[in-house]
Amino acid sequence: IIRSELQNPFGWNNTSTNARYCVFVNEAGRLARYASSSRRYKNSISQSFNDTCNPEKLYELPVVTYRYNDGYTDNEPHGEKLHIAFIAEDVNEVFSVACDYDSDGLPENWNSMEILPGMLKLVQDQHTVQEDHEKRIAELEAEVAYWKGKFESGT
Fold this sequence. Notes:
The chain has 155 residues and is an alpha+beta fold.
């Protein structure tokens, strides 16, 4: 939707981004925009994590399959299919920074803009470990080849 076609003054004027794809409907039913991801609007940028934002906690988050309760998704195309995802209450318990709440303060959904960077951090860390293991395996293979050559030559 182009800005001139549909605009919620509260949502538009109380966020810093103007990207059209960042529009969502908040718990009050108002149009709003996600905050910008630009460095221009951020401070205290760090690659260290406190307990609230520690990506390692994501290892404890159950991944589940489910179907929606009868009547909840009537007339919606995704209503009957089996889904794989997270449960909002589990996200609240394990990685609360990625939990969205309803107007009563109850867990309602998980926020992909918070959870996906944590997941990527875990993938990056695993990649570093994998590279270290591959290097160590190459070193051990070279050492085995050296000793095998010594053994076979009798020296």
